[in-house]
Amino acid sequence: MAAGRSLSHFRFHGFTLMLKHYFKHNLGINIKRFSLLTILVIFTCLGFTPISQAHAESRLIILVRHAEKADTPANNPQLTPKGEIRAASLITALSRTPLSQLIATQYLRTQQTLAPIAEARHLPVTIVEAAKPIEGHIQHIVEQVHAVKGNTLIVGHSNTVPLIIKALGGPEIQAISEDDYSQLFLLSLNDDQPASLIATRYGQE
């Protein structure tokens, strides 16, 4: 066989290409920059065939900012019609992803973003109050994530999502702009490996 490569090598390479093709064309995620281990861990967390017992404790933390909000009332606005459409699109975006818990803040815009998928999955929404100092809020989120096994979907705010990712062991990301509502972050947690992050988008731009 050419260059002494075994049949198992080509099967392994083909499997890698298959995973990358699936993520790009079915989930809209370009993963060519990520290692195979990262790909496999996230593939497992998304609810597909288990890879091996070694990754049985892998979990996926999905984070989004709340969907589009109204201008008034300024202290606690609801979602706009466009925001309601985006909230509903989480059902499709995460249709193959098992979820164990949903986390929102006390604000209507985060709870309404979770409402459609909470109803579809028959899951309660855990409220973690966003209060000052913000470090305390972030710590409470982290504690809640670790209190429940399985995958977690968190709806936060433009200033809290980056802080939550970092507090859970992920990388530092750029600030989310005020008019950006479509980012979706997949943070894989594994006891034996550093956290890995994939950023993608959901709903209509």
Give an account of the 3D structure.
Strands 3-2-4-1-5-6 form a 6-stranded mixed beta sheet, sandwiched between helices. It has 6 helices and 6 strands. The protein is globular and about 45 Å long. With 205 residues, it is an alpha/beta fold. β5 and β6 form a beta hairpin. It is 38% helix and 18% strand. α3 runs parallel beside α4. This is Histidine phosphatase family protein. It holds the Pfam family His_Phos_1. It comes from Shewanella oncorhynchi. InterPro entries: His_Pase_superF_clade-1, His_PPase_superfam.
**Taking all residues together, what is the mean pLDDT?**
82
Number of alpha- plus pi-helical segments: 6
Helix content: 25-40%
Distance between the termini: 48 Å
Q: Tell me the strand order in the biggest sheet.
A: 3-2-4-1-5-6
Give a short account of the largest sheet: 6 strands, mixed
Principal-axis shape equals globular
Short synopsis of the structure:
The protein is an alpha/beta fold. The chain has helices at residues 7-26, 36-45, 81-93, 108-121, 134-147, 161-167; strands at residues 59-65, 101-104, 125-127, 152-156, 183-190, 193-201.
From the structure above, extract its key features.
205 residues; alpha/beta; six-stranded mixed β-sheet; 18% strand; disordered N terminus; Histidine phosphatase family protein; His_PPase_superfam; His_Pase_superF_clade-1
Helices and strands in order:
Elements: H1 7-26, H2 36-45, E1 59-65, H3 81-93, E2 101-104, H4 108-121, E3 125-127, H5 134-147, E4 152-156, H6 161-167, E5 183-190, E6 193-201
Parallel strand pairs: 1-4, 2-3, 2-4
Antiparallel strand pairs: 1-5, 5-6
Helix pairs in contact: 3-4
